[in-house]
TrEMBL record:
Name of the protein in question: 4Fe-4S ferredoxin-type domain-containing protein
Species of origin: Microbispora corallina
Pfam families per the UniProt record, alphabetical: Fer4_9
The keyword Iron-sulfur appears for this protein: yes
Keywords: Iron, Iron-sulfur, Metal-binding
Lineage start: Bacteria, Bacillati, Actinomycetota, Actinomycetes, Streptosporangiales
Domain 4Fe-4S ferredoxin-type stretches: 13-42, 44-72
Family matches, as InterPro entries: 4Fe4S_Fe-S-bd, 4Fe4S_Fe_S_CS
Amino acid sequence: MAAVTGTASRGAAAGYAVTAACAGCGACLLTCPEHAIRPSHEGGLVVLDALCSRCGECVEVCPVDAVVEVRS
Ligand code: SF4
Ligand code: SF4
């Protein structure tokens, strides 16, 4: 099971996830260069791992630190 941490270090994560802390501002969707962040069927947002380039921009722009790194 992958561990979720809030530690930001660009480019080093195994993946990214959006937590329930998301305020729905949309900044990460607009910023993601790969369009990897999408609305999920359950509400909230999901990071499509196959599209994510691990650039870390979503972590940088989120005003409430709701985007977290997922480390394997
Ligand atoms: S790390 Fe970069 S490519 Fe991946 S979801 Fe965040 S902004 Fe998009
Ligand atoms: S930037 Fe943060 S608060 Fe805004 S939509 Fe993305 S995860 Fe939610």
